[in-house]
Write a structure and sequence with these properties.
Layout lengths: L24 E2 L4 H11 L3 E5 L5 E6 H9 L9 H4 L7 E2 L4 H11 L3 E6 L2 E7 H8 L11
Parallel strand pairs: 1-2, 4-5
Antiparallel strand pairs: 2-3, 5-6
Helix pairs in contact: 4-5
Length: about 140
């Protein structure tokens, strides 16, 4: 299958993707509100940024469930209390194959994308697959 204007093998770098996940959380944000945002947007996770948009961590559904399993009150916790602090971060020049390999190695389904020093969006496995086969938003696939 080929789509007019796209190579048969699809796209190559993360910057070429129109991501389906623009959700970001902010330092100090309430964890219950974060849980509700994940649920209402059907998003598995999103980066946490400081006031200037710099990456400081990542929160996914498992992080929220881990806090609940520890019998913590989400309404009394902030993003920093439940976020992962590892620096799993890519930039727009990252090849799709490299991003997929990183997701597999670290057992994550989404990676934040940093451009010019701040996080712009996240790419998911779904985004990578769509790009690898040459489908963009509006080309037979809707988010």
């Amino acid at each position: 299958m080929s789509v007019q204007g796209l190579p048969v093998e699809g796209l190559n770098t993360v910057a070429q993707i129109v991501s389906t996940n623009a959700l970001t959380f902010h330092a100090g944000e309430n964890s219950l509100e974060i849980a509700l945002a994940l649920l209402s947007t059907h998003t598995a996770g999103a980066p946490v940024v400081d006031g200037t948009g710099h990456y400081i961590g990542f929160i996914n559904e498992f992080d929220v469930m881990k806090a609940l399993d520890a019998r913590k009150n989400l309404d009394k916790l902030t993003a920093e209390d439940i976020m992962r602090k590892d620096r799993l971060l890519i930039d727009g020049s990252t090849k799709l194959v490299e991003a997929a390999k990183m997701m597999e190695e670290h057992h994550v389904i989404s990676l934040p994308v940093e451009m010019n020093g701040s996080v712009r969006y996240s790419v998911s496995r779904h985004d990578l697959l769509r790009a690898r086969i040459g489908l963009g938003l509006g080309m037979g696939v809707t988010p």
